[in-house]
Amino acid sequence: MMSTPVRIAGMGLVRVPDTTPASAGDRASRLRAALAALSAEGTPVRLLHGIEEMAVLAAHGALGSSGMPMPYRNDDLGVVLGVEEGIDGIKARYYQGILTDGPLGASPLTFPLTTPNTIAARISILFDLRGETLTVGGGNIAGAHALGLAVRALRDGHSALMLAGGVTCVEREFLEAASLVGRSECEQPGGGACLFLLGPHGSASPAGGGQLLGYGDGFGPDDVHDAIRACLEDAGIAPREVGAVRTAAVHDRRSVVRALRGAGIGVDIARSPSSGLCSASFPLAVAEAAGRPANGTRMPVLVVGNDCLAGAAAVVVHGGQ
Fold this sequence. Notes:
Blueprint: E1 6-16, H1 21-38, H2 50-65, E2 77-82, H3 85-101, H4 118-126, E3 133-136, H5 142-155, E4 161-170, H6 172-180, E5 190-200, E6 211-219, H7 223-235, E7 244-250, H8 253-262, E8 269-271, H9 281-291, E9 301-306, E10 311-318
Parallel strand pairs: 2-3, 2-4, 7-8, 7-9
Antiparallel strand pairs: 1-5, 1-6, 4-5, 6-10, 9-10
Helix pairs in contact: 1-2, 2-4, 3-6
């Protein structure tokens, strides 16, 4: 049975490393503008880590592209943020300092950032978003789960608007630790963030960002199959109606291909260029799908991802006009 679509009212995204000096300069300029707007009526904003910068930039982009005032100062806008690897890297460096220097190596500035919900709280405070704030820690599909929770909150009437997505800052400390336990979703240091401002179906969308038609997830041996089936059922569309497939943050590509073919989806499968950005990979892939038509048409795009913990998620998105 088809569920109510969710409107993408705005989106903000950032990827690091920047590919050119011009893009790096543009990111720095946008960050200065965002901080200037947020500090205009109070104490200047101080950011300590790259993951904070990317989260602020993405939130500023999502709210700004939708025409929302900043700070917002209302309790009808909630935040759901998927974040994992960036915090893990901060914790690794923090504890390395303690092991090396003892108590003197415990930085009081870094300590708050060892808590996963710090980034979501930071966004909520800086932009004065007074709705419910949630943090999802689930590896490379944490951003997908955040979108799923936001969609549910809107459909159930728990919130009028939701700011949802993922952010990460993958550092060398995290990659070294991940390699020791056999995790390899990320290949090199980098970072990214993607946040969507989501509203109920039929709400105004100055950004023309399209709609999230359906969401599904799965766990266990048939994780990808279950996620795709649940997503299509939620969207109320048949497999033949899918115009394109994007994979994001995929741990096991073969299982994804098998599940897609088993579901009767025979369209080409494209790997998202943002698939190495862990928690931010899935939202970034959704943003890419929302921003361009599938195979030259306005057909829905299916975004699929899975992780090394036998979890998978899928979203069907319809691009903007």
